[in-house]
Amino acid sequence: MVPIPQNSRAFAAQSHVSEARARSETEKGQCEGVHSSLSHQPAYVADDVAIRVQNLSKCYHIYDKPHDRLKQSIYPRLQRFVGKPVKQYCREFWALRDVSFEVKKGETVGIIGRNGSGKSTLLQMICGTLNPTNGTIETQGRIAALLELGSGFNPEFTGRENVYMNAAVLGLSKEETDARFENIAAFADIGQFIEQPVKTYSSGMVVRLAFAVQSQIDADILVVDEALSVGDAKFQAKCFRRLRQLKENGTSILLVTHSSEQIVMHCSTAILLNNGTHLESGDPKRVVNRYMDLLFGKEKITLESLPVQSVNAAAPSVANTAYTLSNSEDIFYSRPGYNPAEYRWGDGAATILDFYIAADDEPYPSAVTIGQTILFGISAKFNSDLLRPIFGVITKTKEGVAVNGTNSEMLECADFQTRFQKGAVIHAEANFKCRLAPGDYFISIGIASQQGEEHTPHDRRYDAIHFVVRPHAKFIGLTDLELKLSISEILK
Predict the structure, then answer these.
(1) DSSP letter string over 276-344?
(2) Burial 431-459 (b: 16+ CB within 10 A, else e)
(3) Checking CA distances to 454, which of 55, 159, 433, 442 falls within 20 to 30 Å?
(4) Which of 463, 471, 462, 414 lies closest to 442, judged by CA?
């Protein structure tokens, strides 16, 4: 196997697809009348760019009848030859359309989107196992890929034999693979199964071995498509440690996952795909919020879109001697601690109007001390009749990592297990002991309802409230588990 040259397209280790088969797949998938502009020859890529994708599209033909496939391959050419209007015998399905982006060297980019949005199609084209209908892909260096589970492994071969076969496809000589084999076997940690046929492996063992090979061959670009979701928590932690090492060594990483926390924690940039189009890219936290909008939201709410009530906003929603909350107007944004960069969406059937936060007896504190009790209250108005609404609260770090989250259904809160009529105003209150590490935190709140499998958000305010925990040196990590240490003297 000849090593893969620099500054060229590279086939993924998992592909094992010949050029002839790839061309066949392309001809089968290309739409009639659309000319491929795929750049097969090496093209200039800036020194700091590992991957450049420009106007990338992939179209498939959908045939209603088997013989329509034969008609599509013959009749349009004859019709053009004799000057007649061209008739299509298929329907076009665009799996990807006009997608463009760049990945810098040493950058970790997360690709997120709903099922069927084109994520796997995009990765397959970058790896070279699938040719695009239109657009160009330029890459620099060797590409290693972990695509479909088990693809590229011969089930009759042992794990050892599959390691050498995959390494050869990636351009490694037998001597180079020999030097890396012990590290690969140690990382996979499947014991004597390394000498057994892969057909006897569990899905988790297959992923372990596949990732071990890809992560040990010093690739310039590593592509991972949902494969890590199969492994257990311990193996996932090991994989992400390895990904961090590869990133520090200058490897560019493309990570596809449905886990929003993995995107926020491990990626410097995120790309959101939807129905085959490039919807948004940039800061992972912002892109993930947009992704949650696609999954659960109906439309994003803006302050200008909310109805303005004429009732006095200072009137309390319920009798409460400690503090008052608006029961009519949305004055949430006027409170200390409000985050103007909040992400808000919902269908408007309920509106969160106001909030109150206190640390012990200090209202709207500038900072919170560990051990203090945080009291949190909100007022909300129902703009439609709602049965058993769900009120949720989640606290996150500034990086977007969830520290704690719960809702009225999880807590089996009886007060919410009823019907609320249009115009009703409620006051919800929660409190917790601050056991958080020093730093910045954001509270997200929301009201939703659920009927069967349908989950409908009415008003969600992500990262709406900001608070700070003062510095202390009581523990490391995210939260204090109140661990106690003691000793007993056994021998003097």
Answers:
(1) TEEEEEE-HHHHHHHHHHHHH-S----GGGSPPP-S-TTSBSS--SS---BSSS--GGGSTTB-TT-EE
(2) eeebbbbeeebbbbbbbbbeeeeeebbbb
(3) 442
(4) 463
| Core vs surface per residue 315-349: b (16+ CB within 10 A) or e | ebbeeeeebbbbbbbbbbeebebbbeebbbbbbbb
Pairing status of strand 252-256 against strand 108-113: parallel
C-alpha triplet 125, 127, 131: angle, nearest 5° = 30
According to the model, what pLDDT value does residue 195 have? Answer: 93
Q: How many residues does the chain have?
A: 492
Rounded CA separation 103/269 (Å): 9
Cα–Cα dist 426/313, whole Å: 14
User: Which residue pairs, CB below 8 angstroms and at least 24 apart, start in 314-323?
Assistant: 317/353, 317/354, 317/379, 317/425, 317/426, 317/427, 318/426, 318/427, 320/427, 323/356, 323/358, 323/363, 323/377
Residue 199 backbone dihedrals phi, psi, to 5 degrees: -65, -15
Are the C-beta atoms of 432 and 478 separated by less than 8 Å?
Answer: no
H/E stretch holding 464: strand 454-469
- pLDDT value at position 238? 80
Q: Which two tokens stand for residue 141?
A: 């260096």
Classified as helix, coil or strand, 265 is helix
pLDDT at 230: 60
Q: What angle do CA 237, 239, 242 make, to 5 degrees?
A: 110
Q: 301-469 — its CATH code?
A: 2.70.50.60
Contacts of 273 (CB under 8 A, 6+ apart): 96, 99, 111, 112, 113, 117, 118, 119, 122, 279
* Spans of all domains in the chain: 19-291, 301-469
Q: What is the mean pLDDT of each run of 10 residues along the chain (492 residues)?
A: 35 33 38 38 63 92 87 86 86 91 91 89 89 91 75 86 87 88 89 91 85 82 76 74 85 86 86 92 86 65 41 39 84 92 88 94 90 92 91 88 90 87 91 90 92 84 91 85 83 74
Of residues 208, 206, 65, 221, the one with CA closest to residue 141: 221
Residue whose token pair is 């490391």: 476
Q: What pLDDT, on the 0 to 100 scale, is given for residue 231?
A: 62
Domain boundaries 19-291, CATH class: alpha beta
Model confidence, pTM: 0.65
Tokens of 284: 């992972």
Contact 235, 215 (CB under 8 A): no
